């Protein structure tokens, strides 16, 4: 008998895609849709809707359903400690997490994953279920970055890696060498909206999204989708560069089509070997 897969669902399209892929592979699914974050239509799946602080009810539900493996996926913003209102099990988990609750997102998620593992669960990456969701290196669109854009990508790699080293964010917008904005707690959509009012005359900038150095790749990989492309176009950007084999590309066909329609490039890069003057693959 195939054991069910548990999904702790935040917002966005990825949790539902994971559920559909698991079901298509013949695996039962048990969803926990986290209040305030999960915004999907789960009518076709068994779902428990619960606040994040109710760890006892969440873990009890998953255990009764026979879940041993959990995917933690979807967009979320960290709640304040006072708003968690943890139940007894939540308080125990919070005590295990300790000071990591006040660290960056990767540090917090590592601590949460470790606490769930101590509870007897195995944490599985979303891309282990959605095996084609991490693009290989190469140009994904008809439009390619020019020399100015490639220089901005190189600058963006340096900036995002510096951010990631202190567990702050996974993205930055660079235009003509100027850093228009960096991603922190607000997320990519808000970053792009903010940068729309900061753009300079001349060639548009680029959004660079990378995995943080040393990041646990089971958790919170950078994600781009049609909404990211729309935000980049509204911000007047020339394109988006993402880390190959490290960025979740939501609904690839629709995302690439949106970029082509907007005249943006979408380039998957190996940041360790990216060269400003190298011809685009």
From TrEMBL:
A molecular-function term among this protein's GO annotations: hydrolase activity
Stretches assigned to coiled coil: none
Superkingdom, taxonomy of origin: Bacteria
Domain LpxI N-terminal: 5-132
The keyword Hydrolase is annotated on this UniProt entry: yes
EC number: 3.6.1.54
InterPro entries: LpxI, LpxI_C, LpxI_C_sf, LpxI_N
Name assigned to this protein: UDP-2,3-diacylglucosamine diphosphatase LpxI
């Amino acid at each position: 008998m195939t054991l069910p897969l548990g999904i702790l669902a935040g917002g966005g399209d990825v949790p539902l895609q994971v559920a559909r892929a698991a079901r298509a592979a013949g695996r039962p699914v048990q969803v926990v849709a986290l209040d305030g974050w999960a915004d999907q239509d789960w009518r076709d799946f068994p779902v428990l809707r619960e606040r994040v602080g109710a760890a006892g009810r969440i873990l009890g539900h998953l255990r009764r359903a026979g879940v041993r493996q959990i995917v933690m996926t979807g967009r979320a913003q960290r709640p304040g400690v006072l708003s968690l209102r943890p139940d007894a099990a939540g308080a125990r988990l919070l005590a295990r997490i300790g000071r990591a609750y006040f660290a960056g997102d990767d540090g917090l998620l590592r601590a949460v994953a470790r606490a769930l593992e101590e509870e007897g669960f195995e944490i599985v990456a979303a891309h282990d279920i959605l095996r084609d969701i991490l693009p290989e290196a190469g140009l994904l669109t008809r439009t390619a970055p020019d020399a100015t854009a490639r220089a901005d990508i190189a600058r963006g790699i340096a900036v995002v890696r510096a951010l990631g080293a202190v567990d702050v964010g996974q993205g930055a917008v660079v235009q003509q060498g100027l850093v228009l904005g960096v991603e922190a707690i607000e997320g990519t959509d808000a970053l792009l909206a903010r940068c729309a009012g900061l753009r300079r005359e001349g060639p548009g900038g680029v959004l660079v999204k990378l995995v943080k150095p040393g990041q646990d790749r089971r958790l919170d990989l950078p994600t781009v989708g049609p909404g990211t492309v729309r935000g980049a176009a509204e911000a007047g950007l020339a394109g988006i560069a993402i880390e190959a084999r490290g960025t979740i590309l939501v609904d690839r066909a629709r995302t690439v089509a949106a970029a082509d329609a907007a005249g943006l490039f979408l380039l998957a890069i190996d940041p360790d070997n990216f060269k400003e003057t190298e011809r685009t693959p």
